Automatic annotation (TrEMBL):
Protein's pathway: Cell wall biogenesis; peptidoglycan biosynthesis
Protein name: L,D-transpeptidase family protein
Source organism of this protein record: Baileyella intestinalis
InterPro entries reported for this sequence: Ig-like_fold, LD-transpeptidase, LD_TPept_cat_dom, Transpep_catalytic_dom
Short name of any one Pfam family annotated for the protein: YkuD
Sequence segments annotated as region (Disordered): 332-381
Entry annotation: catalytic residues: H277, C298
Lineage: Bacteria, Bacillati, Bacillota, Clostridia, Peptostreptococcales
Annotated GO biological process: cell wall organization; peptidoglycan-protein cross-linking; regulation of cell shape
One cellular-component annotation, GO: extracellular region
Record's compositionally biased regions (Low complexity): 336-370
Record key words, sorted: Cell shape, Cell wall biogenesis/degradation, Peptidoglycan synthesis, Transferase
MF annotations from Gene Ontology: peptidoglycan L,D-transpeptidase activity; transferase activity
């Protein structure tokens, strides 16, 4: 029996059928898995705050697959992802993770997922600052505050341009850097002022806005300290004006209608009502504490600072209490702060029968009486 031979035309016909079947998506076996071109290098970049997809259709290229092949691939493809979610969210922390694709129960490919933080910090505070010639340890960082979408950024200060020996306006630069290396920049101005008060140039200046006390000798800052002044929200704001130290005593008990506090160092400058003293019951000073948790009108100080000021002050030393500005709030034509003469402050110094001149009156007078060591343990302020 003779074997039939396929003619050339028959072979061409079979080949044509195969090509047509391929074109319409017909496969003669199980389909292959193909990833989208952007994932061929094995890297997936995701912005922080965006959930990482574990949907097969995100990564697999179905552009040339038939419906039958697509169903097969979806049924036989699994994804395992080892991300680390931010608590309470559906997105991951910044970092690198593995996303492994399995096809027909075999590992097909592992993609490296990189969750990236590209958002720079944002400055929420850029505040100018006034200081005095000769002042040391200026807190430039307090001029700036910044926030970040993930963590608290580090603020780096460049104050090289500031000359604390010469009056003038100087620029301070700040750079906020988050843990991902994103940066933001800001600028503020430091106003260096010449401090003069009378011939001797010795006085205490209390800046209620900055919540800071400065002690000058011969026109130079020789001591400074953070403070807490009178509670504004309770109506106990510290009186402002020009006064003089009228008394210095140790180990006193301050009494009011609703408090009783023991202090080791008492330096009054408005009768026996308002003065400087240590406040051992406070854990922090400065800032905006005074607005809602201030004193009854006195100037609260850290114990060490109160002890140092006590050792330096003399009765009759002028005391200026103001909300910001230069030592006396008046600027001369040369830009140097002018001030009342020494005798002006002395004239306003309080006497037992005459309270010091001021712009406000303390709402809760403080009085002092000696206390024993047993009483010293009490504290209600």
């Amino acid at each position: 029996m003779k074997k039939k031979k396929f003619g050339r035309a028959a072979k061409i016909g079979v080949l044509a059928l195969i090509l047509v079947a391929t074109a319409v998506g017909f496969s003669f076996g199980n389909p292959d898995l193909t990833l989208k071109s952007k994932y061929e290098k094995g890297i997936v970049k995701v912005d922080y705050g965006t959930p990482v997809s574990t949907d097969v259709k995100t990564y697999v290229d179905f552009s040339r697959a038939s419906d039958k092949d697509k169903k097969y691939i979806l049924k036989n493809t699994k994804i395992k992802y080892d991300g680390d979610k931010v608590e309470g969210t559906d997105y991951d922390k910044v970092g690198e993770y593995n996303l492994t694709i399995y096809f027909e129960d075999k590992k097909f490919k592992t993609l490296k997922v990189k969750v990236l933080d590209k958002v720079p910090p944002e400055f929420t505070k850029t505040e100018d600052k006034s200081v005095f010639v000769g002042e040391k340890d200026v807190d430039y960082k307090s001029m700036f505050e910044a926030k970040d979408n993930i963590d608290q950024p580090e603020i780096k200060i460049d104050s090289k341009a500031v000359n604390l020996s010469t009056p003038g306006d100087y620029e301070v630069k700040a750079t906020a850097v988050d843990k991902s290396g994103n940066k933001a920049k800001a600028k503020a101005v430091v106003h260096v002022q010449k401090a003069e008060y009378g011939a001797a140039g010795t006085y205490v200046y209390v800046d209620l806005t900055a919540q800071r006390l400065f002690y000058f000798e011969d026109g130079k800052v020789v001591f400074q300290s953070p403070i807490v002044s009178g509670n504004l929200s309770a109506g106990h704001g510290t009186p402002t004006g020009v006064f003089a130290v009228n008394n210095k005593t140790r180990n006193q008990k301050l009494k009011g209608d609703d408090y009783e506090s023991y202090v080791s160092y008492w330096m009054s400058f408005i009768g026996g009502q308002v003065g400087f003293h240590d406040a051992s019951w406070r854990s922090s000073f400065g800032g905006t504490i005074y607005k809602n948790n201030g004193s009854h009108g006195c100037i609260n100080m850290p114990t060490g600072s109160a002890a140092q000021l006590y050792s330096m002050l003399k009765i009759g030393t002028p005391v200026i209490v103001k909300y910001g500005g230069s030592p006396y709030g008046v600027t001369s034509a040369t830009g140097a702060p002018a001030a009342p003469k020494q005798e002006e402050a002395a004239a306003q110094a309080p006497t037992p029968s005459q309270p010091a001149a001021s712009n406000t009156t303390p709402s809760t007078p403080e009085t002092t009486t000696p206390v024993s060591d047993k009483e010293a343990s009490k504290n209600y302020s």
